[in-house]
Write a structure and sequence with these properties.
Mean pLDDT: 84
Number of domains: 1
Structural class: alpha/beta
Number of helices: 9
Distance between the termini: 9 Å
Low-confidence stretches: none
Largest sheet: 5 strands, parallel
Number of strands: 5
Strand content: 5-15%
């Protein structure tokens, strides 16, 4: 198979991270999540801690003032007052994602990868979702100290954060199926079933 990139977006508690890891092992290609922060830090000279603090966290004032997508592809110079703004930090991450897509086969987890690479023919864009009750069960299985209501609050907060992040930078809806090539229900298929489905679709999609 020629070079390819898979982007994975996922609902909180859907098992998307595990699916990405298993997919990475099955295909023998790297996957990038927080690694992108280190790479963006190396390129920009901005401390990785600042990327971590801004990563997928948009203030309410910024969200309310965003009439359209914030990401333009422009990277501000170091002497700019907004050099370490959330907008510029995202632009550096976007730069890294696009460079990775140009140079190697890999999997990008989150960070609006499906939007940033939407015009490439060698990209399979995947969204992992599951019914709320299945996500509650999954999170409860490894968060024994949390009550059901605490888990529910955590899932809803995380989903809202991801949706707000995506809308702020792209002007589009995170859950909109039109932004993906493949939407999979991990509650129905299971993690391994999702991996198998992606492996089956990938060569056909890239043909």
């Amino acid at each position: 198979m020629d070079k390819f990139v898979i982007t994975v977006a996922r609902e909180s508690g859907s098992g998307g991270h595990n699916i990405t890891r298993k997919l990475s092992e099955a295909l023998n290609v790297p996957y990038y999540d927080r690694d992108l922060l280190r790479k963006a830090s190396d390129v920009s000279g901005i401390h990785e801690r600042l990327f971590g603090a801004a990563d997928e966290r948009i203030g309410l004032r910024e969200m309310l003032s965003a009439a359209e997508k914030v990401y333009t592809g422009e990277i501000l110079p170091p002497d700019s007052d907004d050099y370490i703004s959330t907008r510029n930090l995202f632009s550096f991450q976007a730069k890294i994602i696009k460079e990775l897509a140009e140079t190697e086969s890999c999997i990008i987890l989150g960070r609006a990868g499906n939007y940033l690479l939407r015009d490439r023919k060698d990209v399979l864009r995947v969204f992992i979702h599951a019914p709320l009750e299945k996500r509650l069960e999954r999170v409860a299985s490894f968060s024994l100290a949390l009550s059901q209501s605490e888990i529910l609050r955590r899932i809803r907060t995380e989903d809202k954060r991801r949706a707000s992040y995506y809308r702020y930078y792209t002007g589009e809806e995170w859950r909109d199926a039109a932004g993906y090539d493949l939407c999979l229900d991990s509650g129905d298929l299971g993690e391994d079933g999702c991996v198998e489905r992606i492996l089956r679709v990938l060569p056909v999609f890239m043909h």
